[in-house]
């Protein structure tokens, strides 16, 4: 039995990525099942579910933040795909990533652009 936060988070994750997070939960089941629950409850059950921003705005912010970090390519790819799923265009995503060159440097922006290139190619198939 899962908490209301978990169920809210799972529903929100389905809206964001169209899949529902089962892959993440499953991949952590044998090593850190509590962490998988936290990943569903806190970001998606508590933060994404807040009314202050729409999902497109939230994904733009996440793509910017993960690009700026410069060391989160797998997560960035997931959120670029999610951004596309919630209505961002490829052009909007590229602009967000390029803007990060100003704040996080050219290497971070380049890495972000290469991640976007991979995701766009996967979604074109």
How would the blueprint of this fold be written?
Elements: H1 4-17, H2 22-28, H3 33-48, H4 55-69, H5 73-85, H6 90-104, H7 106-124
Helix pairs in contact: 1-3, 2-3, 4-5, 4-6, 4-7, 5-7, 6-7
Describe this structure in words.
The protein is mostly helical and about 120 residues long. The protein has seven helices and no strands. The chain has helices at about 5-15, 20-30, 35-50, 55-70, 75-85, 90-105, 105-125. Helix 2 (about 20-30) packs antiparallel against helix 3, helix 4 (about 55-70) crosses helix 7 and helix 5 crosses helix 7 (about 105-125). The radius of gyration is 15 Å and the shape is globular.
Descriptive key words:
125 residues; mainly alpha; 7 helices
Task: State the major sheet.
Answer: none
If helices are DSSP runs of H or I spanning 4 or more residues, what is the number of helices? 7
SSE topology string: HHHHHHH
Shape: globular
- Write down the Rg: 15 Å
SS class = mainly alpha
Distance between the termini: 38 Å
Q: What proportion of the residues form beta strands (DSSP E)?
A: under 5%
Low-pLDDT sequence parts: none
Number of distinct beta strands: 0
Helix percent band: over 70%
How confident overall, as mean pLDDT?
A: 94
């Amino acid at each position: 039995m899962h908490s209301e936060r978990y169920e809210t988070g799972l529903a929100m994750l389905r809206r964001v990525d169209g899949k529902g997070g089962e892959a993440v939960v499953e991949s952590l089941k044998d090593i850190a099942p509590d962490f998988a629950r936290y990943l569903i409850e806190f970001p998606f059950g508590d933060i994404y579910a807040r009314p202050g921003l729409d999902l497109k705005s939230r994904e733009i912010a996440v793509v910017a933040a993960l690009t700026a970090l410069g060391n989160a390519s797998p997560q960035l790819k997931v959120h670029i795909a999610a951004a596309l799923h919630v209505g961002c265009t490829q052009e909007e995503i590229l602009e967000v990533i390029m803007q990060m060159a100003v704040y996080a440097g050219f290497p971070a922006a380049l890495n972000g652009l290469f991640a976007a290139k991979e995701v766009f190619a996967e979604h074109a198939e």
